[in-house]
Amino acid sequence: MSSLRLNALQITNYKNVLSASYSFKEPIHCFVGNNGKGKTNTLDAIYHLAMGRSYFSAMNAHTINHQADFMRIEGHFERDANIERIECQLKREASKTFIRNGKKYSKLSEHIGLLPTVMISPADVDLINEGSQTRRSFIDRLIGQADKTYLHNLIQYQKVLQQRNALLKQMGRYGQGAPETLEIYNEQLVMLGTPIHRARVEHLSVFEPLFKNRYAAISGSQENVSVTYESQLLEENFTVLLEKATTQDRMTQFTTVGIHKDDLVFQIDGYPIKKFGSQGQRKSLLIALKLAQFDMLKQSTAVTPLLLLDDIFDKLDEERVAKIVSLVHEATFGQLFITDTHPERTAAVIKETNQPFQLHHL
Question: In this structure, is residue 131 part of a structural domain?
């Protein structure tokens, strides 16, 4: 099993963090301070370096401090005794630059998977409350960090999907565009989408028992939880789906079938948690999902991921926090980063792990 550590971090103009520099020597690090001091954004900067994007902001420009024209973050990671110096630079009205050991990436997708990382945040409630896109993104992060082919196919699929939708709009609005071109796009979607679907089926079949085990450990209950993969491709061949949907697609002017419609359904005792789950059940389910993601990444990448815990002490009851902390006792976890508003509470909880830790006051 490979080891992964973050040894140093430098931040400039990242959201509300104007300038900060850290050295990390212990296995557990806690960023503590009042709200608005940049704790979450510091954690997000670590995630950004690992995953190539912010956990909270979809638009690159939103990661730059309002009063600045650029942002820069740099981290020194240690993987298998090798130092990986990762740098991210972004100027307003310009594309983002990602640099590894002094060499600029030609494609950001080349970076994904080098530094496996999992974030647990109050924002994860979107996995339950928001639309299917949020849950598909969860699947894609789960698989994409370990499978370069999956990530490549997914990127290409999105490009072809955009081209096919543009053609459908031309055909619908202006009567332009040859049906032969639509058939070409259909073939490309099938060629890319079928292995994506297959990978999702395979990975989620491994993921579900990990998720169930984590939920049982956190909740301490006998509830039967499940995560079900929903996909049109489970019912019919992709080529047939596209052929049957041709008339509807031309009417709606977008592609109505495919792996871009996939979803996950979370249930407790056979009932959808979105409608019937209590607050406690939802919290337990979300944490179980993320810890199962940690387990899955560790298993599929042979690297112990970084684990980032944002504001969990304020959002969870003491019993669930105690359950999470007890998991940190396990040798299965590597480096852990936590944010909290109360230094004394954080120190008291972390001391129970009997592991060295460091408080960083913001």
Answer: no
